[in-house]
Amino acid sequence: MTTQQSENIRKALDSFRIELPSWGFANTGTRFGKFLQPAAATNIEEKFRDAAEVHRWTGVCPTVAIHVLWDLPAGIASAGEVHRLAAKYGLRPGSINPNLFEDQIYKFGSLGNPDAVVRQQALNHIFESIEIMNVLGSRDLSLWLADGSNYPGTQNIRHRKKWIEEQLATAHARLAEGQRMLVEYKPFEPAFYHTDIADWGMALLLAQATGPKAKVLVDTGHHYQSQNIEQIVDWLLDGGMLGGFHFNDRRYADDDLTLGSIDPYQVFRIFHEIRFFEWETGQPADIAYMVDQSHNLKGKIEAMIQTVTTALELYAKAAIVDHERLTMCQANCSLVDAEMCLKDAYSTDVRPIIIEWAKSKGLPENPMEAFRESGYLERITSERSEKNASSASSYA
Ligand code: PSV
Ligand code: MN
Questions:
Q1: Boundaries of domain holding 195
Q2: Which ligand is nearest to the CA of 145?
Q3: Which ligand is nearest to the CA of 187?
Q4: Residue 49: which CATH number?
Q5: pTM above 0.70, yes or no
Q6: Whose alpha carbon is nearest atom 10 of ligand 1?
Q7: Closest atom of ligand 1 relative to the 67 alpha carbon
Q8: Which end of the chain has a smaller Cβ tally under 10 Å, C or N?
């Protein structure tokens, strides 16, 4: 490793931040049931406390994504309390995620529902979420719609698109200076015939029709098999429309697996395209990196530490791609050499530099070991196991 490469890694790590999802610390599962963990967080305070623990050992997770219904069941009334709790644990509330999919009224959709009353109710929930953002000082409104249909011919797809477009624009008008709206897409689930915002193209068109504060959110789990995600990233970057990521990994669909557990090279390629763009344009890309994972088998805090460590490592590898050389190889169509620029960086062991960087920040060289030695897990297990055992063990 050259001195320049080590320097590149240190600089890259200095600027890297990744947001943790509050829902990643609570008991969650699949539609086939939940496996309860005795140490799972049972309320918003415990979620912040657990997230703070991940931040304590990794140093790069100062914000927590909030899901409104799950974290603020009383809505705006609990915003002040959430703000106080975040500060208590040395964190900041991050993106605000309205919940437009769990209420019974959303059976046939939210913003795309044929019933104007339901559409208005969904919009009101978004308005309240924006007020919550204002109280919490959040920058991003992160929107995911479960809207769609299960059978051909049962919904007017064009009308639904129009309704969604109109309401996103109305919501956009309420955003303050500096706030953003991130539009997430997903090809299927819970709707299986058509999803209203099924892919990045639809999300992009909606964001463009909505207003300048609207950008696209790429959830890495929301793609068909073998889709080239880094190409999507490049197209969005080029148009100034990439707002953020929900990171996870997947084997089949939206599996919520730990980042890089299945295909770390994919994550590296995404980071590489972003850094290559930044190098070429001389501008930092304004992207919110967020985790969207719910671990129901792995220990939740350990899985988050593993995720963050993996992200740091892959980001560091992307920071040592030789851009000058790559540019030359691409221009000459030197295929093997161009590809080797990526492979060389990817196969470099960056861990010694990450350890050095961590030590220079007063962080432990092995976050997982430090967490395990801290006794935190044992403490919360004894504090919470009774509460967790008495909660429902499956979806009724
Ligand atoms: C939907 O699958 C999703 O990716 C959305 O981002 C939700 O907000 C999140 O998962 C949690 O259900
Ligand atoms: Mn997501």
A1: 16-321+364-395
A2: 1
A3: 1
A4: 3.20.20.150
A5: yes
A6: 292
A7: 8
A8: C
